[in-house]
Amino acid sequence: RRAGRYQAAQAALDDAEAILAEGTYEPARTEVRLFQGVGLAHLGEFDAAEAVLLDALRLALHWRQARWIRDAAMQLMSVVGTRLAKTDLADHYGRVAQGLVEGDPRAEATLLGIEAHVRMRQGAFAEAEELYRASLGRLESLLEADDPDVIGARSNVVNAMRSQGKFSDAASELRQILDLRTRVLGPSHPD
Predict the structure, then answer these.
(1) d(C-alpha 117, C-alpha 77), whole Å
(2) Which candidate in 69, 84, 118, 189 could, as Cys together with 185 as Cys, close a disulfide (CB 3.0–4.6 Å)?
(3) Residue 28, class by beta-carbon neighbours within 10 Å (0-12 exposed, 13-18 middle, 19+ buried)?
(4) Rounded to whole angstroms, how far apart are CA atoms 72 and 93?
(5) Prediction pTM value
């Protein structure tokens, strides 16, 4: 996918794992396992991603690495909640991450977005829209209106609106987003 960049990244992570196996700084294994799990998820290998991300979470807990605990829990929430449809388990990982994002608006926005994705998977579209709007609000307080992350968050709100049958409102917002994306990314950008 995407011109083989994920496979190349996975190969680089495998090389890093081999170096770590030679006995270097053990806590660094957490980060490697986390990125391996993310890579597997991007490759569509969701069961394997879950197992590797669980290992990353275990390592982060062992080494008391709060940032990696948070990131592993959020990645697990995303994989198990949106790809494997284990929404109860996703909510559990969300609770783990919740205490570690407070005070970090960017991480709060990310967690809210993941929670919204899980609600969309469950068919709870109104709740998803509310969560997407909260995520968007956090991002808008941090970033410019033409930042790709803000544009993406606005698109998520539109998707939740469409899923609820709010077609007129969604179409109006979508036109604005498309105009902004074209202005920011250019008319020939693949996204």
Answers:
(1) 10
(2) 189
(3) middle
(4) 9
(5) 0.89
Contact 93/116 with Cβ under 8 angstroms?
no
91 in Cβ contact with 73 (< 8 Å): no
Contact in structure between 6 and 43 (CB atoms under 8 Å): yes
- Which pLDDT tens digits describe the chain residue by residue (191 residues)? 444 676 787 787 777 777 777 777 889 889 999 999 999 999 999 999 999 999 999 999 999 999 999 999 999 999 999 999 999 999 999 999 999 999 999 999 999 999 999 999 999 999 999 999 999 999 999 999 999 999 999 999 999 999 999 999 999 999 999 999 899 888 888 87
- Helices 167-185 and 148-163: crossing angle in degrees, nearest 10, is 160
Which structure tokens are listed for 82?
A: 């949106």
Amino acid occupying residue 32: V
What is the chain's Cα-based Rg?
Answer: 18
Q: How far apart are CA 155 and CA 120, in angstroms?
A: 14
Greatest alpha-carbon pair distance for the chain in Å reads 59
Placement of tokens 């990310």 in the chain: 110
* Residues 65 and 71: beta-carbon distance below 8 Å: no
Name residues whose C-beta falls within 8 Å of residue 87's C-beta, 6 or more positions apart in sequence: 81, 118, 121, 122
